[in-house]
Write a structure and sequence with these properties.
By secondary structure, the chain is of the alpha+beta class. The chain folds into four domains: 80 residues, no CATH class; 140 residues, Periplasmic binding protein-like II (D-Maltodextrin-Binding Protein, domain 2), CATH 3.40.190.10; 94 residues, Periplasmic binding protein-like II (D-Maltodextrin-Binding Protein, domain 2, 3-Layer(aba) Sandwich), CATH 3.40.190.10; 106 residues, Beta-Lactamase, CATH 3.30.450.20. The chain is 45% helix and 23% strand. The chain is built from 14 helices and 17 strands. The strands form five sheets. It has a five-stranded mixed sheet, sandwiched between helices. Strands 14-13-17-16-15 form a five-stranded antiparallel sheet. The protein has a three-stranded antiparallel sheet with strand order 5-12-6, sandwiched between helices. Helix 1 crosses helix 11 and helix 2 packs across helix 9. The longest helix has 60 residues. The radius of gyration is 27 Å and the shape is globular. Keywords: Kinase, Signal, Transferase. InterPro entries: BvgS-like_periplasmic2, PAS, PAS-like_dom_sf, PAS_4, Solute-binding_3/MltF_N. This is Histidine kinase. Pfam families: PAS_4 (PF08448), SBP_bac_3 (PF00497).
C-alpha cells in the first residue's frame, strides 16, 4: 500500500503527459493539413440580403482584370493563376458562391481601360487615387505595403521626392502616384512607360534616376545594378478590391466577405507568400508526429523517475510564481496609473500598428474607450478622419521599418477640427532586444510649456 501511495503521482504524470503528447501531435497534423489544402474544409456562407442574393443569381461569374505581379498574382509553371490575391479570391468564392474569371492585361493602363469601359467587373491590383475613384468603388483594405524608391546601385540612395528635382522619375502609365507627383513636384521629370519591368530597365541603363514600386515587389528583383532605397513617407500601397461603379451589390458582397475573413487565416496567407514559408507535405507530418510521440514517451519515462523530487519542488515553484505574478501585476498597475496621470495623450501599438495600451487622455481626445480600440489599427477605427488615420498608420509602418524616433510639430485633422500639435513616436524593444512596436503621443502646442 505504501508503494502504491508513492507511485500514484508518477502514474498520474505518465498518463497526463502521454495524453498531452498525443493531443499536440494531432493538433499539429490538423493545422498543417489545413494549410496544405484549405479548400477541403467546408466553409459557411456569409449572410446576404435579398438584393445581394438576386444579383448573385443573375451573374454567373465576375470578370477580374489582372496583371501579373509576382507573389500577389501571377501564372505558375502550369499556366494557372496563383499568389496571395488568388488565394484571397478563392476563399471569398467559398464564402459567397461568387465565381471569379481572370481577364489578363499587360499594363496598368490596359487594366484601367478594361475597368473604365466595363469590360471587367473588378480588380485586385489597384491602389486608390482620385482618378480611379471617379469610375471605381473600393472595398475595405485587407493589407498593403509601403512605396519604395528603386535607384541605380552606383547612385546615392533616394530618400525623398524632393531629392528627385530636375531628375527623371520613370513610372508605369497611370501609376497610382503619377498625378500627385506631377501636381506637387513639377520640378521632377516624370517619364511614362508601360510596365514596372520597363521602368526598372531604364533605371538600370541610367536613362532614368529612379522609379517607385511596392516594397514587396521591389525586393523580388535583386539586380546587381539596382538597389531599393527609402520608403516614400506618408504614402501606403494598400490592398483593395476595386469594383466598377454601378455594382453596389457586388461591392457589398465582397466587403462582407472581407469583414468575415478570419484574421488569423489572412495573416497565414500573407506569411505564406511574403515570408517564403514552404508548405509541409502530409507524409512528413505523420513522420514528425511519430517522432514526437516517441520522444514524448521517452520524456514521460524520465518524468516518472523524477516525479517524487518534482512533487517536492512543485510547491516551492508555485509559491515563487505567484509572488512573481503579484509583482508583475503591481508593476503593470503602476504603469497604467502613471500613464493615466499624464495630461497628454499617450499610446502604445505593436509592430502591426494595433493598439495595445493608451491612457485616459488618449481616450478623451478621441472620444472613445480603450476597450473599443484594443487590438485594432487606426485605419480600422472611426475615431479619426479616414485620411488622418491612413496617414498616421502609414507613418507608423515606415517608422517601424526605419526604427528611427520622430519628434515634430505639425497640423492634424481630428474629428473636432484642425489642431496644431507636437507629436512624438519612438520604437520600443523587449528585453531580448527585439523590436516590439511604437509608443508615442502628442501635445497641443498652445498647452505646451515654454522653454527657458
Amino acid at each position: 500500500m505504501q508503494y502504491l501511495a508513492v507511485m500514484k503521482p508518477a502514474v498520474g504524470w505518465i498518463f497526463w503527459l502521454a495524453l498531452l503528447g498525443l493531443a499536440q501531435g494531432a493538433v499539429a497534423a490538423q493545422l498543417v493539413a489545413y494549410a496544405a489544402d484549405a479548400t477541403a474544409v467546408p466553409e459557411p456562407l456569409i449572410e446576404l440580403d435579398a438584393q445581394e442574393r438576386e444579383w448573385l443569381a443573375g451573374h454567373s461569374h465576375v470578370v477580374v482584370a489582372s496583371t501579373q505581379y509576382p507573389l500577389y498574382l501571377f501564372k505558375d509553371e502550369r499556366g494557372q493563376w496563383s499568389g496571395f490575391h488568388n488565394d484571397v479570391l478563392e476563399r471569398i468564392s467559398a464564402m459567397t458562391g461568387l465565381r471569379f474569371v481572370y481577364d489578363e492585361t499587360f499594363s496598368t493602363e490596359q487594366l484601367l481601360d478594361r475597368l473604365e469601359s466595363g469590360a471587367a467587373d473588378m480588380s485586385t491590383m489597384l491602389s486608390m487615387n482620385d482618378e480611379r475613384r471617379a469610375f471605381l468603388d473600393f472595398s475595405p483594405a485587407f493589407g498593403g505595403a509601403g512605396w519604395v524608391f528603386v535607384g541605380h546601385a552606383e547612385a546615392p540612395d533616394v530618400q525623398s521626392l524632393e531629392q528627385l528635382a530636375k531628375k527623371v522619375l520613370v513610372l508605369p502609365t497611370r501609376h497610382a502616384l503619377e498625378a500627385l507627383i506631377r501636381r506637387d513636384y513639377p520640378s521632377i521629370e516624370v517619364r511614362s512607360v508601360k510596365t514596372h519591368a520597363e521602368a526598372r530597365a531604364l533605371v538600370e541603363s541610367g536613362e532614368a534616376y529612379a522609379t517607385l514600386d511596392n516594397d514587396i515587389g521591389a525586393r523580388l528583383y535583386p539586380s546587381g545594378r539596382l538597389k531599393v532605397g527609402e520608403a516614400l513617407e506618408g504614402k501606403w500601397d494598400a490592398d483593395y478590391l476595386a469594383v466598377h461603379k454601378g455594382q453596389p451589390q457586388l461591392l457589398s458582397i465582397l466587403s462582407k466577405a472581407l469583414e468575415a475573413f478570419p484574421s488569423v487565416e489572412l495573416r497565414a496567407l500573407r506569411h505564406k507568400w511574403f515570408y517564403a514559408v514552404a508548405p509541409t507535405s502530409t507524409s512528413s507530418i505523420w513522420e514528425g508526429t511519430t517522432r514526437q510521440v516517441c520522444v514524448g514517451l521517452l520524456i514521460v519515462s524520465v518524468f516518472a523517475l523524477l516525479s517524487l523530487v518534482w512533487n517536492r519542488r512543485l510547491a516551492i515553484v508555485i509559491e515563487q510564481r505567484l509572488s512573481a505574478e503579484k509583482g508583475l501585476r503591481d508593476q503593470l498597475a503602476f504603469q497604467h496609473a502613471l500613464m493615466d496621470a499624464m495630461p497628454d495623450p499617450v499610446f502604445v501599438c505593436d509592430r502591426q500598428g494595433r493598439l495595445i495600451m493608451c491612457n485616459k487622455s488618449y481616450e478623451e481626445s478621441l472620444s472613445t474607450r480603450f476597450d473599443q480600440m484594443r487590438g485594432q489599427r487606426l485605419i480600422e477605427l472611426e475615431v479619426l478622419p479616414r485620411e488622418t488615420a491612413e496617414l498616421l498608420h502609414a507613418e507608423f509602418m515606415v517608422q517601424l521599418q526605419t526604427r528611427k524616433p520622430r519628434f515634430r510639430e505639425r497640423q492634424l485633422m481630428f474629428k473636432h477640427g484642425l489642431s496644431d500639435i507636437y507629436q512624438w513616436t519612438v520604437p520600443f524593444y523587449g528585453a531580448d532586444g527585439q523590436l516590439r512596436g511604437l509608443q508615442g503621443g502628442w501635445t497641443e502646442i498652445e498647452r505646451r510649456p515654454r522653454q527657458t
